[in-house]
Amino acid sequence: MELDTVHETAGSAGETDDFTVATAYWHVLDDGRIQCDLCPRACKMHEGQRGLCFVRARKDDGIVLESYGRSSGYCLDPIEKKPLYHFLPGTSVLSFGTAGCNLACRFCQNWDISKSKELDALADRAMPETIASAARELGAASVAFTYNDPTIFMEYAIDVADACREVGVKTVAVTAGYICPEPRREFFAHIDAANVDLKAFTEDFYRHVCGAALGPVLDTLEYLQHETDVWLELTTLLIPGKNDSDAEIDAMTRWVVANLGRDVPMHFSAFHPDFRMTDVEATRPATLTRAREIAIGNGVRHAYTGNVHDTAGASTYCGSCGTRLVERDWYVLGEHALTHDGACAACGARCPGVFAGPPGTWGAKRLPVRLADFDRARP
Fold first, then answer.
1. How far is residue 312 CA from its own chain's centroid?
2. How far apart are CA 116 and CA 230, in angstroms?
3. Domain that holds residue 253
4. Are residues 289 and 355 in the same domain?
């Protein structure tokens, strides 16, 4: 997969004028094309063309976002599904995404959404205030921008985040972290927590499997950890024979400890054959266990296994005395020894994260939501 710009003609993907907003990050090139400056891909477009992400397009001598106010659907999920284990554990999160993506991962687990080239598929329409109101009425502690990367619809995500903040609801970004420095500062200033997909730890993997680059992602991780108050967790989907070697996991986890610190949680998740990698076998649980052991051996205090039933690998333990603070089996929480302010009940050491009382009881429930039911502005 090359990193060159992929051009898509805007064409007739459905009427979008009512859901189109101007964007800020672009400039005009000497040859008349306009370059999008949102992410390192730097798509260069003639009038009527789209970037690789599909939702940002050149129109009337500017770059517009064509998916504002439109979603592929809404669902109440457990926060652990994002996955976030140290951010309001046991609570529900109202999740949604749009269409498109600025990466081209061959293994995409949400390819039907992130690789969609049809704006008409975005049937659910909601303004930011409606989403915030729905989250509050449903009892969700947060709203998650997920299923596809929120950086490509950052104008919409920012407005939703601001509306949520006004009613006491937090926001979560599930992202690949592939974004340029200036829009990155603006976007994450509105976000409370992020799970960043660190897809591998080699430039070769990012280039040939994701159509991207590793360097900008590492820059985003360091920025989030050292220059913001955003709660950060990492996820790596381990793909057999692609990014799951002991040497790569060792190098990755050493980098995390040295550059982000020991307290950033790391999730090692199981791959299942999908999209353009149906010929690769599913990840064996033993691979996840081995990765977790390597991470802990290198100093990561909170390393987890994901997408498998593994209570030992999914539970949170005190970094000081080893007491199990939160018991987990996939998305189901069991016994806990965590105080209301996130301290270990046994030794008093504080567990890193964002906590508001004891863990909630949402569990593994998944509840589809119709935002039209909460849109008070509609006739």
1. 25
2. 29
3. 70-367
4. yes
